[in-house]
Amino acid sequence: MKIQQIFFKNTLRNFCYMITFPDGAIYCIDPFNALEVKGFLGNDLQLTGILNTHDHCDHYSGNEELLKKYNCPVYAHEEAKIPGRTHGIKDTDVIYCSGEWRLIAVDTPGHTMSHMCFLLECNHKPYALFTGDCFFNAGVGNCHNGGNPEVLYRTISTVFSVFPDELLIYPGHEYLKRNLEFSKSVEEDNDEVEQYLKKISGINMDEIFFINTMEVERKINAFLRLEKPSIRAKLNLNNNSSRDVFIKLRELRNKW
Questions:
Q1: pTM summary value
Q2: What burial class does residue 169 get, using C-beta atoms within 10 Å of its C-beta: 0-12 exposed, 13-18 middle, 19+ buried?
Q3: Which of 21, 51, 93, 122 could make a disulfide contact with 89, Cβ separation 3.0–4.6 Å?
Q4: How do residues 9-37 score in pLDDT, each as one tens digit?
Q5: Are strands 26-29 and 15-20 parallel, antiparallel or unpaired?
Q6: Other CB atoms closer than 10 Å to residue 178's CB: what's the count?
């Protein structure tokens, strides 16, 4: 199994992912542009299916051109407005299963109310998660266009809390440096964030990308660290609920 990360140097800094399985099946997650996907496939490879995490156009704008060439299934949340969707999916639906690998839909509302992540399992153990705009390296998605921060809090605090430390995170956008800077601003005593910022200092973030595990995210992502005293003190929410801390963090990040 191979995962190819395609980065689009647009202002939104989109990622698209190509997953190639040992039996030759190839799935594309969130094609922003068909040209790069067709370039990856070349003249000999066939696209098995398209998976869209949600119905914002920067995550499906390549669908129609790809469908003209490959005429493959398109999987998305059953309530998402996705061009060319052929299969409406819901939580725990298995999209692909062969040998040791499975690709499973995970319902993750909040950024939009019809947002899906896609969990890749190896021998029934979580291996990688394609998170769309629900969850980023060192951050979470906004809720500006059809989302709800309280719902996103429930998703992050329940669904993401049970994922194992070794799970690999593949987000829909490259926002790492900016998210780390925000995490540092609300948790100034977090040495892990400081060390990560030093590690990426001077690196061309249009060319070199970092794949974090959930273990790393739990150390650097403020939205997973809601009980930390320094974050609560910074927000003046020492005695508030975790929900209150999350909502305040999201409000601050919207303006930051």
A1: 0.97
A2: buried
A3: 93
A4: 888 999 999 999 999 999 999 999 999 99
A5: antiparallel
A6: 16
